[in-house]
Amino acid sequence: MSKGYSSPLGNPGESPGRRRRRLVTRLSAAAAAAAVAAPILAGCSSGYEAGVLNVYAAADGYDFVKQMAQTCTDESGGKYRINANVLPKSADDQRLQLARRLAGNDQTMDLMAMDVVWTAEFANAGWVVPVPDDLAAEVEETNLRGPVETAMWKTPDDAEKRLYALPMWTNTQLLWYRPDLMKETLGSVKPPKTWDEMLSDTQAIKDAGGPSWIMVQAKQYEGLMVWFNSLLTSAGGTVLDPNDASKVTLNDTPEHRAATLKALEVMKAVATAPGHDPSITQSDEGTARLGMETGKAAFEVNWPFVWASARTNGATGDVAFLKDVLAPFADKLTDEENPPTDAQLAPINKKMQTRFNFAPYPGVFTDKPARSAIGGLNLAVASTSKQPDLAFEAGQCLTSKEAQTMYAVSGGTPPTIAAIYDDKDFKLAYPMGQDIRKALDDAGATRPASPQYQAISTLITATLAPVGGWDPETMVDKLAEQVQRAIDGEGIIP
Questions:
Q1: What integer pLDDT is reported at residue 78 of this predicted model?
Q2: What is the mean pLDDT of each run of 10 residues along the chain (494 residues)?
Q3: Peptide bond into 466 cis (omega under 30)
């Protein structure tokens, strides 16, 4: 690995204006490609070409999958050729297009990058081929426990849980904070370990004249489900029984009810705290990043992409609290033709951490470990493929150590293979790697595994929105009722 880590938003050497133009161009191109693909999807060709494998990947990260597909093709010695096909940016649209192809028995579809929450649904529908036992054993031995768990499911025909996809890349959230503000107002740079501590620290910073927002993802979309599920799991609860996906566990016992109530109380406290983000009910990953970079917040819960974003924007002077510490490195960080190596990034990262730092996801109770949501993609072989053995061989290449290192360095997505986190160069470029590894090795806050997950998430987020505008005590039972409706197939067609 020779080049430094960059965010999904662009190269760390890009100026904000250039990066925005390239991002708009990239997203417009992806949207156009999706629009062109839509009528083709409706037809779903039944033919296929021997040795030609089609992989479908989301717009975010597609460029890197396409690059790796070419590498794998070249290294196969003519055994196969991988064609990369782009899916829309929206996860809902990705799922819909894949489902249409699968239901239409499209034999040209071989490999598909699936959101980690689709495993149960696709496996129960018979749309994915189980990973062969020998390969599954290798994956379970070499990959972090959390990402592996997202790719496992037990269908009615399975004797036990088994692997239905290959972990491709993963994600988890961290706490991002301003040590300079904490030192100035609190006399300490020790990050809060719980949400209650964070609320207390924020109040003290506000009282001292500092920023008062806590940046989260709280508008009515999957980000709200991620926040609720992380809090719930950290409090010791679950949405469903891990061993029985038909059983709602939000209020089935006093202990589970207390965990759900505490999670909701935390959400309400953040959403209604004095000086809270006035747009919190419309907040997502992007607005959370901007709230932090513009100096309106001392704390932010978000995915790792915010690190490279702050570094890039700080180097160009767009993040006021980073401008002076990154000024000596501005030329190096904005050199598009010769971006800094991992070793060159190490001292820059150290400087950044005096103003913008990271810590493990905050817990709900001091005596219970925090559980952060697991995101990412898994690569599955479609049951419609006429070449499943060859598809698994290509899938191994697309999820290999080389591939995952490239995805991480170029695309900003954390790897699932444990050994990558021990790589010296990777550690230099990715300083938050060990915190991410620990969160994922502890299994994290896996979202409820269920064939009805889409309906569960849709109804939970619709019930919770607008966040904080409800009574936590009565909301416990409302949520349980909605999840039961989703399981029973009532009132929602995802």
A1: 97
A2: 33 35 32 35 60 95 95 97 94 92 95 96 97 98 95 96 97 96 96 98 97 97 96 97 94 98 98 97 96 97 92 94 94 84 88 96 95 95 97 98 89 91 88 91 82 95 97 98 93 52
A3: yes
Collect all residues with Cβ–Cβ distance below 8 Å to 265 and sequence separation of at least 6: 472
User: Which strand (E) or helix (H) includes residue 398?
Assistant: helix 388-398
Listed in sequence order, the DSSP H helices in 208-295 are 222-234, 254-272, 285-293
- Alpha-carbon span 361 to 226, nearest angstrom: 13
Sequence-distant (6+) residues with CB within 8 A of 435 are 174, 358, 359, 360
Contact 128, 395 (CB under 8 A): no
The span from the CA of 341 to the CA of 346, in Å, is 9
Positive or negative, the CA dihedral 222, 227, 230, 233 is negative
Q: Which residues pair with 215 in a beta bridge?
A: 300
* Structural contact between residues 91 and 117, judged by C-beta atoms closer than 8 angstroms: no
Nearest in space to 238 (alpha carbons), one of 251, 223, 220, 222: 251
DSSP H or E run through 142? helix 133-142
Residue 86: which of 123, 55, 115 has the closest Cα?
A: 55
CA distance 393 to 271: 48
b (16+ CB within 10 A) / e for 455-468 = bbbbbbbebbbebb
Contact 179, 189 (CB under 8 A): yes
Contact 393, 132 (CB under 8 A): no
* Amino acid at position 139, single letter: V
Domains of the chain by range and CATH? 16-171+374-441 (3.40.190.10), 176-306 (3.40.190.10)
13, 351 contact by CB (below 8 A): no
Contacts of 304 (CB under 8 A, 6+ apart): 171, 172, 174, 412, 414, 432, 436
Burial (0-12, 13-18, 19+ Cβ within 10 Å), 258: middle
Contact 1, 405 (CB under 8 A): yes
pTM across the whole model: 0.85
- Could you give the C-alpha distances from 231 to 227, 242, 260, 266, 325, in angstroms and in order? 6, 17, 8, 8, 34
